[in-house]
Amino acid sequence: MKKIIIANWKMNPSSPKEAGQLFSNTVKLISGVKKTEVVICAPYVYLSGLKKLSSKISLGGQNIFKVEEGAYTGEISADMLYNIGVQYVILGHSERRALGENNLNVNKKIKIALRAGLTPILCVGEDKRDENHGYFNFVKNQLEECLNGVQKDSLSKIIIAYEPVWAISSTLNRRDANANDSREMAIFIRKTISDKLNNQNKMPRIIYGGSVNERDAEDFIKNGGVDGLLVGRASLNAKKFSSIVKICEASER
Ligand code: PEP
């Protein structure tokens, strides 16, 4: 399966013109890339416009509502995203969890996203690490609650993003995670998921996110035990983001 690099633009940039430029510049800079799948998760209001610019990069949303349709002022549904050509959606991001998102809602959203034909990018990750390694159980609980009741053969359609909150660029007093942190959690996530699967079921892709940049991307890709990366801040710079994509491309055999 192809490796995947996913950009999370968060609530940036502030105009459609800038969004179009960032997108087009990124498309240009990755024109030779063939073996790596590239996705940009942009604010809702830009998605239709970006879709018209190029199909080289797939598009993702950053959230959906937990109900399929109805009187929910201000919300966006999974079908709405799918019907404008969006393929992916980030769910359970720590910045949304900080605003009140919980595992139960994320579970509903995953099921709705799958039903609509979107690929959920499920974010899990601990706020802090403790000496007793309780963070493994924290992530296990997130996985179990968020994936509760999801059909075994749908699990391979989900991408699991391990994002230790303490390493994300928006976290106050953040610190760097390294490829070893990523690899041990990727192994743990694979084991947790494989306990739920039959032999014939495929594994979901597992990716790492948390302040990845063009200097450490190679280490995460080669030694982090993951199938790709989720990139926030660095994705707002076309040069930096495309370097990360090319590093991934070069690492593919
Ligand atoms: C994220 O928040 O999903 C993320 C990866 O952000 P950053 O790379 O800025 O830490």
Commentary on this structure:
Pathway: Carbohydrate biosynthesis; gluconeogenesis; Carbohydrate degradation; glycolysis; D-glyceraldehyde 3-phosphate from glycerone phosphate: step 1/1. The protein has 253 residues and is α/β, with parallel strands linked by helices. It has one domain: TIM Barrel (Alpha-Beta Barrel). It is 39% helix and 15% strand. The protein is built from nine helices and eight strands. It has helices at 16-29, 44-53, 78-83, 94-97, 103-116, 134-147, 179-194, 217-223, 238-251; strands spanning 3-8, 36-41, 58-61, 88-91, 119-124, 159-162, 205-209, 228-231. An eight-stranded parallel beta barrel has the order 1-2-3-4-5-6-7-8, surrounded by six helices. Strand 7 (205-209), helix 8 (217-223) and strand 8 form a beta-alpha-beta unit. Helix 1 packs across helix 2, helix 5 packs across helix 6 and helix 8 (217-223) runs parallel beside helix 9. The chain is globular. Bound molecules: phosphoenolpyruvate.
